[in-house]
Amino acid sequence: MTSKKDKIRIFDTTLRDGEQTPGVSLTPEEKMEIAVKLDELGVDVIEAGFPIVSKGELEATKLIMKQGLKSKVCGLARAEQKDIDAALECEVPYVHVFIATSEIHMKHKLRMNKTQVLEATSKWVDYTKQHGVIVEFSPEDATRTEPSFLRKVLKAAEDAGADIINVPDTVGTATPEKIYEVISQSVSTVKIPISVHCHNDFGLAVANSLAGVRAGALQAHVTINGLGERAGNASLEEFVLSLHFLENKKTNIDTQLIYEISRLVSRLTGVMVQPNKAIVGENAFGHESGIHTHGMLKSHLTYEPIKPEIVGRKTWFQAGKHAGGHGLAAKLAEDGLRPTKDQMKEITRRVKDIGDKGKAVTDADLFAIAKAVVGGVSGEKKIIDLENLTVVTGTAMVPTSSVKILIDGKEYIASETGVGPVDAALKAIYRIVKPLANVRLKEYRLEATTGGSDALAEVLIKVEDPDGNIVSARAARTDVVTASVEAMIEGINKTLIKRRKKISTNKK
Ligand code: KIV
Ligand code: ZN
């Protein structure tokens, strides 16, 4: 029954318990698409569905069976003839039969006593086995079942021919210690292999499954992205990686396919993966803090427990107020941008500035800032510089601006009105610089790098001087007016620098 002794078997129930996630319903074709990927991933068993539940479930299980997968395809059935017959109708080689064994379930749900549950276990495990399939038996709510009764049920299932017994922590109330105890007792009660099935109601599903393995379970039931009833089941990705890296145990899983299947399941079920979810969450291999990125650039071992490539992912760095110059420089270098030290200081300053305003800095924001800084005129070369900008605007007034500019170190102030705040601010600048650089705005483009109202505004302009020389300039700020003014100052600087260069070469 078991794969090699040293390997833990992975029984994937994404398509059965996972599909029981509130609001999730997959078509037979979608279930088939996931099953094919689960097979590639290397799961030992695919619980394809609960065939008695609906025509679609029956059809989906049959469709998955027809794919000729390497993984064993299994159908779920209550300990009842019609359920078992529905599973057998799908021609699955593996049937998972269950009946509840806890006092609570027997009294309130089944309305059966212990003797009746024991009889049903023997009768329906035997019936299923007579059809020549592998039988996995689950005493539902096992962890809340009276221990001596649980042992009797397990023995009855083994005697009736069950090939493997699965022990469910149906409402996720067990602790790792409790699971260890229940699984140890189960292992010593029967000779057939024991499996563990944990729910995540207290966030312990993976820890509990690992405790089950430590106690001797040779198989675990898991789901992709931890989908499942209520808070879900133990997640395949967390369980498998913990087994491989923390418990030094093996499985047949090709871990490099984990991220791909996680995305597929999320897309088809419509259930988003929380960003900070281990292994498959968006942030699982992302770094923002300057200290962390600095360490990571020296060795990934500093802040990553495993290489992301192991699960088909990549390390990434986030720009933001915690970021340091090293991380930002590495991120820019990936796209061929290599700012100087001074430019990097300015980029880092602007990124932190945005972060301090409570805004996340996207990659697009970082690149817009970097391009503005790299393409700009650096400190000491600047002929004109913005000292101060004030704009007042509103529905009941004419937009008015006041601008203070330094030209070759000398201060100039002007005020203007305009049709809007940008117009008012640019007019005030023209008024100051006109005697020096009679430029005209030839093109103005405003782009938001991200979607929100707090998006970084990227302004791209072209200015033309009276001789027809055109220069381009850009600026990126969360404030549209400041970005427009900075782009304009940039354009004027470039025009003036060009002109001064021309004059000095003519003199020579
Ligand atoms: O959680 C549970 O008890 C189950 C059974 C059907 C095994 O999913
Ligand atoms: Zn379950």
Protein model, in words:
The chain has 508 residues and is an alpha/beta fold. It folds into three domains: 261 residues, Aldolase class I (TIM Barrel, Alpha-Beta Barrel); 89 residues, no CATH class; 129 residues, Alpha-isopropylmalate synthase LeuA, regulatory domain (Double Stranded RNA Binding Domain, 2-Layer Sandwich). Helices cover 41% and strands 19% of the residues. It has 16 helices and 16 strands. An eight-stranded parallel β-barrel has the order 1-2-3-4-5-6-7-8, surrounded by nine helices. The protein has a three-stranded antiparallel beta sheet with strand order 11-12-13. The radius of gyration is 33 Å and the shape is elongated. The mean pLDDT is 92. Bound molecules: 3-methyl-2-oxobutanoic acid and zinc ion (ZN). Zinc ion binds next to loops.
How does the SSE layout of this entry go?
Blueprint: E1 9-12, H1 28-41, E2 45-49, H2 55-65, E3 72-78, H3 81-89, E4 94-100, H4 103-110, H5 114-130, E5 134-140, H6 147-159, E6 164-169, H7 176-189, E7 194-198, H8 205-214, E8 219-222, H9 236-246, H10 258-269, E9 286-287, H11 290-298, E10 316-317, H12 325-334, H13 341-356, H14 363-374, E11 384-392, E12 400-407, E13 410-417, H15 421-433, E14 440-448, E15 457-464, E16 470-477, H16 480-507
Parallel strand pairs: 1-2, 1-8, 2-3, 3-4, 4-5, 5-6, 6-7, 7-8, 9-10
Antiparallel strand pairs: 11-12, 12-13, 14-15, 15-16
Helix pairs in contact: 1-2, 1-10, 5-6, 6-7, 7-8, 8-9, 11-12, 13-14, 15-16
The chain binds 3-methyl-2-oxobutanoic acid and zinc ion (ZN).
